[in-house]
Design brief:
This is Transmembrane protein 161A. The chain has 21 helices and 9 strands. It has 524 residues and is mainly α. The protein has one domain. A hairpin with a 2-residue loop joins strand 7 and strand 8. The longest helix is centred in the first third of the chain and has 27 residues.
Amino acid sequence: MNTRQSTTTSGAFRSFTCQSVHIHGFSCEILAVCEDAPAATPDLRLSGEEMALMGIQLVVSLLAATAMQRMAPHYSFARWLLCNGSLFRFKHPTEGELCALARMQMPKQNRRDRRQNGESKPLTVPKDIDLHLEKAPVNVIDALVLHFFLEYQWLVDFAVYATGVYLFTECYYSAVDASKEVNIGAIWCVLTVLFSLKTLHTLMSHYFHSKEGGERSVCLAFGFLSLLVAMLVLVVREDYLEFGLESGFSSLFDNLEIFAKQQGYADWSVPVTKLTVKFGLAAVCAYIGALLAFPGLRLAQTHLDAVQMNSDRPLIQILLHVSFLSPVIVLVLWVKPITRDFLVNAPMGKTSVTIVSSAAFDSLRLWIIVLLYVLRLALTRYHLQAYLNLAQKWVEQMKKEAGRIAAIDIQRKVTRVFCYLTVVTLQYLLPILLILFSTLSLKALGDFSWRAGAETVTPALVMPTSAPVHPGGLDEDEEGMDDMEEDIQATVAHLSATFTTLRSVLTPLFFRGFFAFFTCCCSS
């Protein structure tokens, strides 16, 4: 991520800053306008909605992007997570150590020990030797050579800064009325979800390009299973699964038709039906199911190993079990008869009692999801250490077998566990990031609230029939003003109209249905 900044002053009225931000292969130019003198003419003064595009949220977003670039070489949360000294890897034994344990001398190479192709015979040792692997803390030098380490570091650091921007926007929205501004924190959350999907796709593509077809078959099997489950879920009525897809897509289609009529397309109608949209959602679920096939299998294995590793710590075991069951809990939260109906209209004999209000239940559901996946993040070390212990576990299993084994095979088995560490870390963290940031997007774009009883759905804005026109007449003494000022004003006005139109079509009802379904899809 590279940042380039240049400042140009035209006249005595305004200065503009051109900020070019390159993030993970994407680049965008952002123009920020500031007033240098209070005597600016009203002809070039921007309205409140236009200035909202260049408010304090954008400044904080640029600061976060710059800090991410500058701080990454010096401090990285992703690097600290793996290399803080709490994780221990196992070193592979040398040939000399294996020979000493087998009570044999190092073989000397001679002509009789050579094969016909010119390669020497491999050194073999008995499998039942008393081999104990040496532990060593994972450090930065060891981690830099791991596969996918750079992708892992960039994505986790981006998620950390996205969380910071989101927390700032939440505080900002609670302090001032910023309903007309673009929620930059929600954009960062959506970008985190997209980057997580991209990284999962990169991991899955390696399975499809491998010579062995076993991994490919597993991904396809999970994808078709997810497709079947999604098609069954989408035919269930909203009385049982309250995703809100029906109301969300009804709102989207109605707003699209209204927008088309305002643009002069009186005979235009939505070219797709709700059934087609549901087939598209089922296909998305199948794709996500294929992406999460191996992360799910890896989580099950590391969970069992982590529970066995902490057999003498019952509290950690309870937390591990709660963390493992968190996807099931998330799914149950959207089953209306079990959760909402039970809490909002709790049966008490012949009457019903309201334990929590409907708005309070929406807030409670968001809090439960966030807390569950923060717990999973806190238990990351136990799962990763359980994975690293597979090297010693394999050695213990080898000791129970008879026969001989090549020394190079022992070294490869032990080394391969550590070389796969960042891939396992991504497989553990990416599903957490998907669900956590999709929940934050659901809260921000769906107009939910963290406070109980504060539910408000922002109504659809009035869609402009044409782009806003600003008076263009200038006094004679201002005829020499740079044309760049007018270009900036026109660009900001165009962006303002574009965002207003998008917010009019993509209402909070649509975002509620889409992100609720997406969150449950990632959980399943």
